[in-house]
Amino acid sequence: MPCTADAQSDWIKDFQARSTRYTAQQPRWPGPVFASTPQLVQVLREDFAHQESGGTHLWNIGVGKGLQFVPLPRTEFTFAIPSHLRRVDEEPDGFGDFNCAVKYRLLGAPEKRGNYILSAQLGAAVPTGNDANNSADAAVIPQLMGGKGWGRFDQSAAVLATVPVHHAGRNGHVFTAHTASQFHASKYVWPAIETTATHWIGGRRDGQTQFLMGPTLIVGRLPYTRHEKDRRRGISLGFGYQVAVTHTHAVNHIAQTSLRIHF
To answer: What does pTM read for this prediction?
Structure first.
């Protein structure tokens, strides 16, 4: 038994050391609240969101977040925990879809060597929820993400498409673009302005465009202990609020909280 425990401890140490090496060649800004981050991160993340649309209130517990880990050079895997959707009106509650993704860092440099990053990601969503809360068909979600920093300021962006595997004419295609403008105000405080633009082609919202924007705040990465040496590990908290600024929109506003345990 002691030999087995020692072997497991050595494996964990080796895995952590490799992850630290793999994530060293990139900036250390925190990931946005509403968008995917271009950085490779090893984190357990759980978000909580409240959105209102046309008088309908929806609580989203999970927001499709979950476990992200970096087992290979330049490569991150994500396995999301299906969200639980709770509504204030008479619509039924229930779990949403399962999704997963693989991200590959194309380019990257830490703050003192260029302070930039570019990554590509391929995700998939599988309709595992109940009828009222899942998608009609599975979808693939390609995404391109990048960012550049200048001193205490950094700008990141992400563009993605949600492409149904079947019945594309009925379900439609969704194109989304995110931006995040962050400022490193103090050691652990990162205020930002984030935007989300969404355009639908096909489906019941064919031709519509929605634009959301608002402030966000990341506090972290707070070390586990005073003696924590690995800056990659710690806890972060995020808060964000976005409101629709276009006449046509599917959502009036979204408030979101993010808890991130980096390991």
So the answer is: 0.90
